[in-house]
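Q: Predict the assembly, please.
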Amino acid sequence: METKYISQSGIEQWFDAIVTSGKRVFAPVNSRGQVDFKPVKKLSEVADEYIQTTQSIKASVYPKAEVLFSYEKVNGKVNLTDFDPESVPETVLWKVHPCDAAGFKPLSAIFNWDTTDKLHNAHLAKTSVISFSCSAADESCFCTSVNGSPGNTAGSDIQLTMLPDGGAIVEILSPKGEALVALSPSVFVADKGEKKEKYLVDLPVRFNLEEVNAKLNKAFNSTVWKEQSERCLGCGACAFVCPTCACFDIQEDAHGSKGRRIRCWDACGFALFTLHTSGHNPREHQSQRWRQRILHKFFYMPERLSVVGCTGCGRCSRACPVDMNILEHITSIAKQ
Amino acid sequence: MSKIGVFICHCGENISATVDVERVAREIGGMEGVAHAIDYKYMCSDPGQTFIKEAVKKYGLDGVVVGACSPRMHEPTFRRACAEAGLNPYLCEMANLREHCSWVHEKSEETTEKAIDLVKMLVEKVKKNKPLDSIKVPVTKKALVIGGGIAGIQASLDIANTGHKVILVERDPSIGGHMSQLSETFPTLDCSQCILTPRMVEVAQHPNIKLYTYAELESLEGFIGNFKAKIRLKAKSVNYSTCTGCGACIQKCPVKKIPSEFNAGLGTRTAIYVPFPQAVPNKPVIDRVNCNYYKRGACKICEKTCQVGSIEWDKEDEIITEEVGAVVLATGFDVKGTDFFPEYGYGQYKDVLTGLQFERLASASGPTFGEIRRPSDGAVPKKIVFIACAGSRDPAKGIPYCSKICCMYTAKHAMLYQHKVHDGESTVFYMDIRAGGKNYEEFVRRAIEEDTVNYVRGRVARVYEKNGKLIVKGVDTLLGGEQVEIEADMVVLATAGVANCGSEQLAQKLHVSYDPYHFFAEAHPKLKPVETNTAGIYLAGACQAPKDIPETVGMASGAAVKVAALFSNDELVREPVVAVVNRLAPPLYSTCVGCFMCETACPYNAIEHEEIKGRDGSLIRNSARVNQGLCQGCGTCVAFCRSKSIDIQGYTNEQVYAEVMSLLND
Amino acid sequence: MSSNTDFEPKIIAFVCNWCTYAGADLTGTSRLKYATNVKIVRFPCTGRIDFLLLLKSFAQGADGVIVSGCHPNDCHYTSGNFHARRRWIAFRSVLDLMGVDIRRIQYSWVSAAEGSKWADLVNNTVADIRALGPYAEYQKVADYLEKEGYNEEA
Amino acid sequence: MKKLRERAAELLSQGVVSLVLGYEEGTKRPRPLFCRNSVNAEKLIFDSRCIHNLAVYITKKELVGKERFAVTAPISTLRSIMQLFVENQLNEEKLLVLTVDLNGELREFTTFDEIAAYVAQFELKRGEREQELLSKIEGMTREERWKFWMEEMSHCFKCYACRSACPLCYCSKCVVEVNRPQWINPWPAPLANMEWHINRAMHMVGRCTACGACGDACPIGIPIDLITRKMMEDMAPEFGYIPGQPAKQGNALSTWKLDDREQFIR
Amino acid sequence: MKIGFYPGCSLTGSSREYNESVVAVAKALDIELIEINDWNCCGATAAHAMNEELSLSLPARIMAMAEKQGLTEVVVPCAACYNRLKVTQHELEDDTKRSRVIDILKMPYQGSSRIINVLQLLEMYGAENIKAKITRPFAHKVACYYGCLLVRPHSILKFDRVEDPQSMDTMIKMVGGTTLDWAFKTECCGAGFSVSRTDLVAKLSGNILKDAADRGAEALIVACPMCQSNLDMRRGAINKTLETPSDIPVIYITQAIGLALGLSAQELGLKRHFVTVEL
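A: Predicted assembly structure:
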């Protein structure tokens, strides 16, 4: 762990060096009226004025649909082609928010809970995260309430804190980070002693996580779920933009004698998610599915995996077509 | 894993000449789920069918694909064979290797590969087939016969004599049709009316026949065994229950100059009329188009003369509904008028007649009481020319077919003329003489040899009038192509027989197919000549194609037998190709959400509403349900259903999807 | 249009049982010849033909599709072809809006008596599709799971 | 608005209805409110910002219950309600529709015909956004349209917010969930997404009332509402219906006319 | 009223009187005829039997020139020319043939000009005018002779009744004449053999003249230069085949109408005939 300073032109040089190294670089880009992570080649493509990207970096690290294996039957014999971790390209994520970077911990906790997930780990291994601490937030942000902060370095390989001169404080947090620095070592100079905290947005804590946890412990049969979820349409928007949601579906893409097995994103909010073949559905109503979503993130995960399933990025609130504001709902549970 | 048996037919050499059938069997044999695949010279033969039956038992097949001819030909054959071997017949499908492959392609690699694809497609389909049970529907044992000519009369009498009820509908005020207009009939020269009228009377008096004259079919709904016919009874303006048929009104009717339809325009009739003296029923109707009262609001002379007060001025058309189990179409034909022929004067020469008009001239009941006289001046023609194939066999005129009856009746006409005008001279221009039929050739020879009719093989280019004569310019192709010019007194055109007017509309009402000339189409040109493509609707007589009286009567009796056979069962077994709305376990019960858009899409009103209720009797959901009796299996609802809640047995989503995918997946 | 002589288009024909299937039977009994590229799938009626089947056909590698049934007023089921006609009007419009190449779908009415029309239809459609070339634009995206793939090739 | 609150409170307290579906202030804009008692009626608002199509809730029995309920409905919602009537999804006896007309007067409807008479005075027009985007799309070549939509579709992750937000997507099992056969590939991928949206457009032919709820719900901003809107506009003259005026004459695709266009049929 | 005009070779040579009468009548009816620039042969020679491309290209060029001039309607008095132009227009509805011909012409051709004969011109644009301007009713009993090229093949020309055309009869009746109902309206005059087998021409034309004479015609009215020349110029030879020689004059429909409109024999070219015209 080392802290350095980089000038505005230094950032530009370094960025070019990363791109020329052949790694894929994803950064927030403003297009189609939305800011989202996209492959970029130039620093000028990177978006400036925005609070949050629509989708989390999950969308850049994990494909929405991914081939687990493929097969072909030739003369009665099956040839199987398994997932190849080496096929995953080296990827650098530029300008990640701390709340996004923090999402890798809960994701890893889920994917490696009982068995280790080859695909997840391959993607993670090939990904380097350069986060930027936050100097702005909006009414949906609440990282400080879920053990995070605008300058949280968890999950980051390097964190930059932008300074008024256009330069930045560089925190080098991991060997992967060091490797990135090594691509253009000359632009990193000695730390000027600026305090990082001075440049972070002030985001008050909105609820007490332990209090919420304690309330949720007794809330399974509460009427709050029905009340809160009435307007929920049961779409999967919240889950798909969430940095920690990990539900997936397994599908077969079979064509005659060949085919492949595909893992694709799913959402616990879908009615079909828990539908049994018999027709029985243990989570038949939207209120039950809403309860699952909240309990899973704020109760089951802390209890079983020792990690909160929410990083406070606020994307679900922003994406929801009917304003299912998670902060508002959690706050109201905490106050009950 | 499925156990499909595949049987590839050589069809003699019809398939094997262009398709490598052994390779087809070999490659299909290697397919997933195919337990047995062979090829054989004639799969439809007894030994061929035995192969299938034995294989079903030996390999425990749960599906059979026969790669042979069109399923439209032999599907029932092979399904029956499967059923006899204990396999549900609907687990048998046919790949069309003959009509769709071997006959339409040259021998090549591609042709064999296409054949393999076609079989593969059906193998994949059959894997998704489900055993189905035939559907049983009750049969209404009453027949509807449309058309009261000799075909309709014969069919009605034959059906009625088997003890079943018949509704006979005739468009004109009397039954009898064209046959009643004929003078004598070939090849015996017996009087047409003499042999027909007893039949007409029999129809009128038969307890099993209900006769509606001056009536037309309005609509037909339903299906075999269960039709609902709406019949329009046109207002006759005469109350038949009180009318005595005395004819006084006809005598007094002041409108006397209406061209008589019965006399093919050569005579006249009144506005209140009976078409001909022997009409059945022999009671008049008022022709409202020509009646003074209906035209101008005054007259009513007939009402004054009617002693029993039978005239009903305000009578309106009435529409009645009859439930019937079968329909016989016997709507007959029409002949082209002389105005169809510009080269013969556009119909403006009074002495150029159609064959039908000549029949009326020759008929004892005709306008000249059987004397051959010119319509223009009443003179007896001394020279007469008959032109055969007027319109027929002439693609330029849009009638490439042979009208079949003209050769014979032209010979008859010439003969009748010679018998009536002893010093007359008759000439027949012909293309060929087609006299196939019992005693037909002899009849023509008699005309030529005994009655000295002058037969000239050649066509007539033009007929024109000069100095009161009709100049016929033709050619004699047998004598060196000499041009022939005859100054005739009368010319008779054997004009083409064509479909009756309105036949196209009628076919559409009944959903039967018709050929390009609007004649109704039989289900199979050889093996199903009296059936139509619509089950329960049969054909009799010239509505299918021009034909003579013996043939018409034979066909009518054939249709009657088909009806009688249908009526011999109380229930009818139908193919289970019908739509079904899914029913599932609770809590869904069905994926149908009851938008009932299928209801508007269904051409047969087969969609019903069903309330699905819980144990406590509370309504869970409204769902659609298909009435299997009404459903005809078109599947329009299936393609329309957004949630895929309806499927059609025999062509399920899974089946057709598997077929398409098999063609594309390598 | 350039003609692509080496290319053998894959064409699927969706036809109704009563008119076009029977018409194609007549082509056979009349011994008229046509290209082997077209394979017929039998349906009871054009009304039964699901638009999704057409989409799936293209996705699975068909270069062209023929949809054919009874002439107006000749439908064995009275109005299945009228329903189908409406469906195709709408479907063509959606496809065109989305940029799908609707020239690759050939609609036709072929009656049971039009054996020669069927042969002509097949031959003309094969020639038309051959001229258009393979429907690579559609087929290549069929397997893609992510967007990058098609962007790179495009 | 005051009248609306008073009337809602009255309806609830008198037990005329058990629920008033309306709008309340939300985080950034109004959001749906399930108002089940007269106290909550104070939260009700109704103004031009209220654009959620509440008709989406009225086919959900578990939400609206078996008793009579009321729904506040701007024009676009009224149109959806009409279409739901046409599709046999509503019961006139159980539904009370409230709206505020141009003069600020509270209006109440119970039948299809009443709504139809009211809605008839409003013509369905393209807004600025629709006009701009649609003229852009209309100006493209076929290949450009394909590229445009494939690019858009590549962003879709199949959250089905479009389906969930649409009042007319009330099937208990959507065609994408039917897997025998699997008509539409369930994973998000450019063509699988395209197939879903083509399918959605086909299912909406003659039904879509252009409320825009699907486009509004899309979290990644794909202008999917334009597909169904454009279809509605193009098919209206073709099949003889008035856009935004559902009529009880059967669906455009379940009916037909003898003289429907067929130049494209060889 | 302006209208395109294609005279063709006959009207500038053997049938000058036809040209003169067409122009005179058009002028009298306030119809302005605009001759197609640089027009060429219509191919009504042996060309159309020998070389299909040439037979289509020649008329196509004429019509292409007319299109270039912006003439949407072109009157073609000569029946042979009229026939060639109409048939070509029909043939070139076929895309392959059209693009081949355009290749040959190196000129755009759309086939958009409407080709009409003199009878159509008079019927469409002159009928009312003629009625109003009659100064000397054409009070003669005449036989209207149409020949073959004006009405055949009917499927392409779609003009008048094929075996018993009426349009000239109507026109004559309009200017005060009576017409014969006779049988030879469209019989062959022998045109095809007018050079090679004049004996056949004499026989066939003789049949026509005889029937007209038998039925008391004062004149034959024609609208085709070929018919006119066969019936008029070959009269000597014809008369040798007839029992009773005939001196019935053969005049163009435009001449008949011109007379009714009060135009002089000079203006109408009536002095150019072989058989003296005294009407």
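The CA atoms of residues 48 and 129 of chain C lie 25 Å apart. Chain C has one domain: 9-153.
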